[in-house]
């Protein structure tokens, strides 16, 4: 589904990704872990097409297509979804209108008819239950005045509505208490299927108790320094990034 | 100067339609003429007009419209009446009261809405007591110009302790017959002690003619009165519009003003209020949306003349094309006005490289125990929000339009009359998205 080959990216003059290679197949969940500044959030944003980053080398194939040539909205229309680390507040646009616009854009891109507001409410009902949200959340402006937990649940709600093939969760667990974390994880797990894939970017092993990955990759200095199964996350938890970094990876003396 | 085109029109007016005026009114007009001739139209050397040239108005020199008449049918008003058929509505066509188009039959008890010309004919003491007292002709040329021709307009009176639920709509319509003429509508709103009402003042056009509306509105808020006053300026795209609203507020009154301005090629709206009683408050909000070569200038002045008063102000502008927006917000705190609490904000969204804005907050504070803040932002579409929307599959164009709408909607949300808010949201959404639907909710 996704093939990242030797990806280099920079923000302005500053190189952040320095040669990432990673293959994600349908039905898989990959965890990308790493200390602050390792480039894991940048990787997530580059895949979604964030304009702040420039890809300087390498390629990314998504279902055989050059992902990097596509505009962010086209990526989304083709099934790529990024759950933001910091969801953006949009005062003045209701959640319902925002979700319906996005939903209809995706349908249009697939050559399907748009749904009207009433039919869309039916679509929403079950999705709301998935993330334990009440429908008055739909009438509020997008993320405006939402608590941290509400914002993250709103991301998962969007994901549930848009039903992506490739979902990238960028530190969705940060700042969540254990109950909210469980709700988010349950939502993500309920969407796991043989024909979609998930990349979970996280700083902590904690989330991976709830969303169990097939593969774990450790990022440091803009490169994947180690890959393994889910047990690698536990090892990181036990030893810490510095522990692993100093002795095995040589990342302790990074800038 | 004494022989300007306006002076000769004045003489014609004084001999004709203005002939029957009572002495006090004839005197007011005569003094206004003299004052106007002395002041002349403001130039950009005048600090209050620094960013707005009225040269197009001077060059056009549209004469006062001397013959009544218009070609407006009830159906033509539908786009401007907010779908509300049961609001008391007083309609003026090309500056002249149109009883057949007005619906003043079932006014609630405690409310009077009538036309100024008949009020003068009937020697209404309310008019004599207040006219030109709140908006004196001495200071401003356009107010003097209005006052020398003052003849028709609306009078609204809310009696003591009456609360009026339905908004009262004053609708000034110009049609093709207004072309190349000037009208000087005058409105007087008196909210007596502890009354509560909403008054909407609309300036609209059924055509695309070039004409000049020079309006003056005087608002009196007695002790404890609560008045919501919406001004909707949707004049013809080729019109000139100068509108001055002056309010005088007594103790514990609250004046909520909203100025919505999208029309005219050259528009200037002044909203002035004097907080002249302990504990009074003013909320002045507004939204202006411009495109093409439009020029729109708002000047607000809040005078804190007594202690313990508050003022809140939020103006937003959305500028596209080569339009030019101006906002000048003055807050003047008198020495005795301790515990003044004032906040002023002007946010402008520029959609085009050629659009231009001048925003100038002006705080003059002569009391020492006050809290006054002001802030102005001028920006473009938020790139982070844009990326967020695009990452959800929303195309760049729609995302930009929705964000523009959202920027404007934030101030529209402060309009309490639901039918007006929805209509202005709809008009705004349609303007920026081309989507002809109800506002997103």
Task: Output the keywords.
heterodimer, A: 255 residues, alpha/beta, Rossmann fold, six-stranded mixed β-sheet, four-stranded antiparallel β-sheet, B: 441 residues, ten-stranded mixed β-sheet, 9 helices, 20 strands, 22% helix, globular
Structure summary:
The complex is a heterodimer of chains A (255) and B (441). Chain A has 255 residues and is of the alpha/beta class.
Describe the overall structure.
The complex is a heterodimer of chains A (255) and B (441). Chain A has eight helices and twelve strands. Chain A has 255 residues and is an alpha/beta fold. Chain A has one domain (2-249): P-loop containing nucleotide triphosphate hydrolases (Rossmann fold, 3-Layer(aba) Sandwich), CATH 3.40.50.300. Chain A has a six-stranded mixed sheet, sandwiched between helices. In chain A, strands 2-1-4-5 form a four-stranded antiparallel sheet, with helices on one face. The longest helix of chain A is centred in the last third of the chain and has 19 residues, at 231-249. Chain A is globular. Chain A starts with a strand and ends in a 6-residue tail after the last helix. Chain B is of the alpha/beta class. Chain B folds into two domains: 5-276, no CATH class; 382-441, no CATH class. In chain B, 22% of the residues lie in helices and 36% in strands. Chain B contains nine helices and 20 strands. In chain B, the strands form two sheets. Chain B has a ten-stranded mixed sheet with strand order 2-1-5-8-10-12-14-16-18-20, with helices on one face. In chain B, strands 3, 4, 6, 7, 9, 11, 13, 15, 17 and 19 form a ten-stranded mixed sheet that branches. The radius of gyration of chain B is 21 Å and the shape is globular. The termini of chain B are far apart. The chains are: A alpha/beta (255), B alpha/beta (441). The A-B interface holds A 48-51, 71-73, 75-77, 81-82, 84, 87-94, 96-98, 101-102, 105-106, 109, 139, 141, 158, 162 and B 383-385, 387-396, 398-399, 402-403, 405-410, 413, 440-441.
